[in-house]
Amino acid sequence: MKVGFIGLGRQGRYLAVNLVQAGYDVMVYDVRPEAREALAAAGARVGRSNAEVGAHGDIVAVCVLDDEQLEEVVFGVDGIVAGARPGTIVVVHSTVRPKTIDRLHPLLAQRGLELVDAPVSGGESGARNKTMSYMVGGTPAAAEVCVPLFATSGSKIARTGGPGTGIRAKVAHQLITCVNKLSAYEGMLLGVAAGVEPEVLELVMSQGSARSNAAENWSKRSLRWAIPVYYKDLEIALEFAHELGISVPGAALAQQLLETIVR
User: Fold this and answer.
1) Catalytic site includes residue 2
2) For the whole model, what pTM was predicted?
3) Which whole number is the average pLDDT over 239-262?
4) Is 245 exposed, middle or buried (0-12, 13-18, 19+ CB in 10 A)?
């Protein structure tokens, strides 16, 4: 099977490398020459455009930052659709607005292409260590074809339903992730101020009902680089909640305080 991969950032580069190491015929593209060169050194073919990658892959995965980049990669000049053959599956790993996926799905179908929304969780370390989690929305047949590719970067693969359900699950996931960071910040602030060592608090949290990734790893790693990503994801969550008529004040507060609550 031939695979295309577009978007070689913190997560994407390792997802692509894992596919190469698993023996797939992978062609990649990124607007940054240094990103393309790094994947060439890892054994990937390097395309000259998104369209060339689209022509190469039976499955073409996209891991870019936001809605605008996704639309440019898929439908822009020399985009995926300019090169892809009917029957190609376009996999979207990016966290974007659900309405963007809902709009792209029928547009791709009109061209004989299939969309699988498969956003990921785990960050750079998860991609590098092959411990990623996937939320996979798509037709059963298309999702089934993609699962072995996803398994090269992680075994936690949740089939969420039809097209568009993967991104809906990811938006909910990101909301909970960020609100957890708010609660972890306040709990650790209180505990440390009261004289308990952070490492002891982390142990306590790991053994009780307050257990969360944010609390258990409070002093172990820095995610300051991810603040713009969290802000964007919460913006999507707040917008989507408004569309659904749902109030999520915790998410709004977490977004306001990201600079404080993300270590």
Assistant:
1) no
2) 0.95
3) 98
4) exposed
